[in-house]
Structures are given as C-alpha cells and as structure tokens.
Amino acid sequence: MNKETITVTSPLLPDLDEFHTLLKEIWDSKWVTNNGSFHKRLEQALCEYLKVPYISLFTNGTLPLLTSLQALRITGEVITTPYSFVATTHAIWWNGCKPVFVDIDPTNCGMDPDKIEAAITPHTTAIMPVHCYGKPCDMERIQAVADKYNLKVIYDAAHAFGVEVDGESVLNRGDMATLSFHATKVYNTLEGGALVMHDAETKKRIDYLKNFGFAGETEVVGPGINSKMDEVRSAYGLLNLKLVDDAIEMRHQVAIRYREALRDVKGIRFFDDMPGVKHNYSYFPIFVNAEEYGMTRDELYSKMKEQGILGRRYFYPLISTFSTYCGLPSAAPENLPVATRIANEVICLPMHHGLNEGDLNRVLETIVR
Ligand code: T4K
C-alpha cells in the first residue's frame, strides 16, 4: 500500500470562494499594489490581532530584517545566533556588517544571554536574537546587556506570530521585531512578512525604505529597496487572519498528543509549554540523544523518510558552518558547543493544522520504540 507523504508543514489556506470575492474587488478597483486598501486593512487588522502599535507589511520575512538594520543605521558588528534560518545572518551581511555568533541556551534554543557580553567589542552596535520555534528568548536579560552597552536589539520573530509573555506580545520588545508570513509559517500570506516598531516616525521611515526611499512623488530620502506587499496577498492575509486561531488550537492538540506519546521515550527530549507564555506551536522539535535512544538523529530521520514522514532538521547545518561565514572567528565550533550539539540532535516533526489521528499515529509509531 502506498502511504501518503506527511510533510513537516502545510499552508493554511483561506476559503477559495471568499478569496475570489476579494480578488474581484481588487480587479474592479484596478489598484493592485503600493499601499492599496487591502494593504491598509491588513496592517490595521494585524496591529489589533498582534497587540502592537505599528506594523509595516513586507513582501517576505527577509527584507524586514535588512531594512530594520538599515533604518537603525547599524554598522560594525552585530551579535547573533548560528541556530536559525540563514536569512537572519544574511541580513547582517547585506548591511555590510560583521555577524558575531554566540552560543544558544538549550532550554529554548535562543541566544544564551550569559554569552553575549564576552562577544561585545568596541565595534558592536546591535544584537539580533531569534525567538526560535516561537519560544521567547530571555528578553529581560538580553535587554539588560543591550542597555549596559548601548546596543540596539532587533528580534527576528519570524516564528513568533501571536506569541505573548504575560499577556504582552514579544513583538513589542527590543527596538524592532520582524515576522515572516511565508507559506510554511503558522500565519501566511503565501510569501510575506512584516516589521513591528514602537512609534509613528519609525513606521514612516520604514514605509519609505520599503518603497525605494520615496517620501512623496519627487523626494528620495535614502537608498530604499522595493519590498512592498501587494493587494492580492494582503487580501489573502485578511482571510487567513480569521482562521489562524483555530489553526493554532489544532497545532496545540498535535503538541499535546506528541508530548503524551513521547514523554517516556528514553533519549528523546522535547519542549513543554513555558509558564506565562501564549505559544503558537509553530514547530515541534525533538532532540535525539543517540546513546540513550539507540539510534542517531540521522538514522531516525532516514527511517521517518522511508515511511513517508518528512520531518526537517531545522536548524542543521548551523549558519556558522556555511562557506560565507565559517571563516569568522566566532564561527569556530568550540565557541558554539551547545548549538553544535543541538543541530546534530534536532528533528522537527510534522506540525500543522491539517494532521489527523492517522497521521499522528504513523509519526509516533516510527519514533516510539
Ligand atoms: N528568519 C527565520 C528565523 C526564518 O525561519 C525565516 C524563514 C526567515 C527569517 C526568512 O523569512 P522568509 O523570507 O522566508 O519569509 C522554509 C521557508 O522557506 C522559510 O520561510 C523558513 N524560514 C524556513 C525555516 O523554512 P524550506 O526550504 O525548508 O521550505 P520547503 O520549501 O522545503 O518547505 C518545507 C515543507 O513545507 C515542504 O516539505 C512541504 C511544505 N510546503 C511548503 C511550501 C513552500 C507546502 O506544503 N506548501 C508550500 O507551498 O524553507
């Protein structure tokens, strides 16, 4: 019997008829991009949903990273994590800055606040942590170091849509925070992303920078880029916003089922919910201790693949091992022992709103032994 493939994720899709109705509106209006009415409506709806004061939509989750660094005039060295999607470090590189990697905390896979101070030099101007898998970083301690050395903090919150700590959005922390609305994320606009900021002046500046730097018809205030979200994706995003709470609850149920079944499996570690945190269940990473489990991570990964279960090794290999970055002194594996170990242990299990009981049984039968 040919079993259907179970992928690590699957996009949340709006109702096609409703989408068609909105497409008709766009067609009728003949306004398809450049801050159209759906773009404005989505920005407002997201501010309300995410409990943030200002947001600027982007065409993906990478360009807000680039633009945030540009807007804050970051130069020199930026402290970041090697345990992320490569876009985080690429954004630093694209701004002509030098990434400096620090190790991670195994309890949330975010930057280890204890390691930041040792990485600061007279050239350091910013810290770019990642809320990896949507698990909030230790934001208090990161901010304390940033304040002590007068550094900016830009959170890559690509995974942290809707995540709150004690009722407050993580997106409100640091100087700015970025989001990805890629198809593989909890909330998607096909491709898309956003930048969250604290004040209207900064939003204005960001809106200029994502539109070539244009401030009005004839004035260009800086070397901006074109990273505007169009009307079709904004409309799609408005519809998906209506579905995202239910989708997150379905993911929550998947996490509960995985945790119940894996709790007593020797050599498999996973995350529980953190106290006071509203999670979005964007990923379900497990960490395989080969000695205790009796099989390496890659052996389990291959076994799953043979069964048609396409987990992913996010984030292996570490960014610091890629050819562009491996020559940096901070990229040495001795500097990153925790990240190096975790990258060799991780498999993200299938996690999305569309998984059924049969799918979950197949995943778990492959792992539980
Ligand atoms: N910062 C962080 C921390 C990030 O994780 C990311 C992106 C970014 C920044 C940059 O944001 P964006 O510029 O991408 O908005 C994926 C995504 O492309 C990427 O957005 C994401 N992080 C990264 C962690 O994962 P791939 O190469 O693993 O995706 P892919 O195409 O292999 O898809 C994974 C699985 O998802 C497929 O096996 C099946 C399913 N899928 C995928 C797509 C695209 C679908 O079912 N339908 C689809 O349309 O990178």
Structure characterization notes:
With 369 residues, this protein is an alpha/beta fold. The chain has 2 domains: 226 residues, Type I PLP-dependent aspartate aminotransferase-like (Major domain) (Aspartate Aminotransferase, domain 2), CATH 3.40.640.10; 124 residues, Aspartate Aminotransferase, domain 1. The protein has a 7-stranded mixed β-sheet with strand order 2-10-9-6-5-3-4, sandwiched between helices. It has a 3-stranded antiparallel β-sheet with strand order 8-7-12, with no helix packed on it. Helix 2 runs parallel beside helix 8. The longest helix has 32 residues. The chain is globular, with a radius of gyration of 21 Å. It starts with 5 loop residues before the first strand and ends with a helix. The model has no long low-confidence stretch (mean pLDDT 97). The structure holds ligand T4K. The site of ligand T4K has 24 residues, from helix 4.
